[in-house]
Design brief:
By secondary structure, this protein is mostly beta strands. Helices cover about 10% and strands about 50% of the residues. The strands form three sheets. A four-stranded mixed sheet has the order 4-5-6-7. A two-stranded antiparallel sheet has the order 1-2. A two-stranded antiparallel ribbon has the order 3-8. A hairpin with a 2-residue loop joins β1 and β2. The relative contact order is 0.27. The model has no long low-confidence stretch (mean pLDDT about 95).
C-alpha cells in the first residue's frame, strides 16, 4: 500500500526502500508469499503487447520489471530502469518474494 519495495539478505535491508507502482484497484498485485520462478532480460507481455524489461516473475504473469513508477500496473510491480536491472541481477530462481498490503 506504500508503493515501496526493498531487497533483504540475511534479514537485513541491502537495497531500498524504493518507489514502485503495483497493480491498480481492478487488477491488484496479489498479496502473499511467493518464489522467483522465471527471469527474462527482454520480457514481453503477450496479454498487453508491451515490453517488460528485466522481468523477474513471482506469480503467474506478474513480475518485477521496468516501467513507469507513476503508472499503476495490471498486477506487476513497476520499477525504474536502474532498480529493475538491480532486482534482476540480485534475485535468483527460488528466492522468496513477499507482497504485503
Amino acid at each position: 500500500s506504500k508503493q515501496e519495495a526493498w531487497l533483504l539478505h540475511d534479514g537485513k535491508v541491502v537495497y531500498g526502500p524504493l518507489k514502485v507502482a503495483t497493480g491498480r484497484a481492478a487488477l491488484p498485485t496479489p498479496a502473499g508469499d511467493f518464489k522467483v520462478w522465471y527471469k527474462v532480460v527482454d520480457g514481453w507481455s503477450t496479454t498487453y503487447n508491451a515490453p517488460m524489461p528485466y522481468s523477474v516473475f513471482f506469480y503467474k504473469g506478474d513480475a518485477f520489471h521496468e516501467d513507469p513508477v507513476t503508472v499503476r500496473s495490471h498486477g506487476c510491480v513497476h520499477l525504474s530502469l536502474k532498480n529493475a536491472e538491480y532486482f534482476y541481477k540480485f534475485l535468483h530462481l527460488g528466492d522468496k518474494v513477499e507482497v504485503r498490503r
